[in-house]
Automatic annotation (TrEMBL):
Region (Disordered): 319-348
EC code(s) of this entry: 3.2.1.21
One GO term of the biological process aspect: carbohydrate catabolic process
Alphabetically ordered keywords of this record: Glycosidase, Hydrolase
Cross-referenced SUPFAM superfamilies: (Trans)glycosidases
Entry similarity comment: Belongs to the glycosyl hydrolase 1 family.
Superkingdom, natural source: Bacteria
PANTHER family recorded: GLYCOSYL HYDROLASE, LP05116P
The protein's name in its UniProt record: beta-glucosidase
MF-aspect GO terms: beta-glucosidase activity
Taxon lineage: Bacteria, Bacillati, Actinomycetota, Actinomycetes, Kitasatosporales
Catalytic residues (UniProt): 389
Alphabetized Pfam families for the sequence: Glyco_hydro_1
InterPro entries noted in UniProt: GH (IPR017853), GH_1_N_CS (IPR033132), Glyco_hydro_1 (IPR001360), Glyco_hydro_1_AS (IPR018120)
Amino acid sequence: MSSSTVNSIFPAGFLWGAATAAYQIEGAAREDGRTPSIWDTFSHTPGKVLGGDTGDVAVDHYHRWREDVRLMADLGLSAYRFSVSWSRVQPTGRGPAVQRGLDFYRALVDELLAHGIRPMVTLYHWDLPQELEDAFPSGSSAGGGWPERDTAHRFAEYAGIVADALGDRVEMWSTLNEPWCSAFLGYGSGVHAPGRTDPVAALRAAHHLNLAHGLGVQALRERLPARARIGVSLNPSAVRPLTPSAADRDARRRIDALANRVFTGPMLRGVYDDDLLADTARITDWAFVQEGDLRTAHQPIDFLGINYYSPAVVSAAARDEADGSGAPRPDGHGASAHSPWPGADDHVSFHRAPGELTAMDWPVDPTGLKDLLLEYTAQAPGVPLYVTENGAAYDDRPGAGGQVHDPERIRYLHGHLAAVHEAIVAGADVRGYYLWSLLDNFEWAYGYSKRFGAVHVDYATQVRTPKSSAHWYAKVAASGELPGESAAD
Ligand code: PNW
């Protein structure tokens, strides 16, 4: 990427943030009226999460939020993205709200604002109230949840509750985090909650998430003041063909449809593309898409959040070449008993992108981020972009004196921030960056084994220690300038 020794100056007002999600940090899983979400059920099911880890305690943010806001203030962050636990504020997923749950988030927001930190609320970061997963509105025998249309309406009602409670003090609102993961890892490959493995359910879930987004935006618009900014966070796949051959480019097209256009089609353009419908025609006729749904999903949005970690490389299916050997992987990039790619398995093989690997075995390649930012600048003209997640897991261990030295993470962040800057110079309207994550936390199917935090957490004592990357990021945030490469290490 940039091999310059000159500092990259970010636009004035650029937000320097960090991100978290409720289930990954809060703990207090049974306090103040909170009921189980699908992630409580899933993590308590033996064999689903590495080491049998759960979010019961997590990093105890529910009790340590003041300390955590102080940490952010000490690091000079100007923005913080967190999610609301649905079952903490509306335990059954329908009906009246629980005031204590709402009070927690109001107090958190007030504390952030008192420290000059702009909150971004994510309404849904994967923790569906278990009661909604257990409901069977259309008589399905497999379960309810996102494959059921009613869940989208329940989400809109919940969005209204949170808007009523926080709308006077929160300006930035995101409906969903990474609906691809909710639909295809939750109901397709089953490596995320609720752990179902049914390609039809996965596609139904994707549609109802699109519908939920649209209904959610409508519910927010009705209640929020005009200054509110409403958007969504997607994890678009920066997917490349292994070779320029027509066959490999067709594999790329298939994954682009299933990873990206299945959401951006409805949300940004009000359509499901014909090739997506054709590729999945043997699985479903998409009869669950009702008249008007696409119009509902296609709401004007005020920003688009891009979450990015690593690119994907695909080719036409060729079993012996692909690195599909290893154990099932939560990212769907390895052999797995159940695929998160309905209809694509006979056609597509995944390959390792070049580049150093993080502790997730995800290759480091900042160009993917620059490419995505420019691609969505073109696809959503006039819609400001935020990088709502970017970061890396490494095997961080406190050294002598308790300090955590993580030069790999500094290099990762430096490379990706340089990519963001290059995208801005090339015309992308990127308004902010939220590092994933503020704190080490519950990394879903990997439990506490993967540390993404800029701040180290000792899980035995809950002691927080900013890693060297946190101090580095604080300097970048304070100056609004990314040091030239020679100054990165
Ligand atoms: C995102 N994949 O998750 C989430 O938004 C965060 O909650 C999470 O901690 C972070 O990225 C790091 O994993 C993903 O398998 C999980 O492709 C899995 C995948 C992508 C994103």
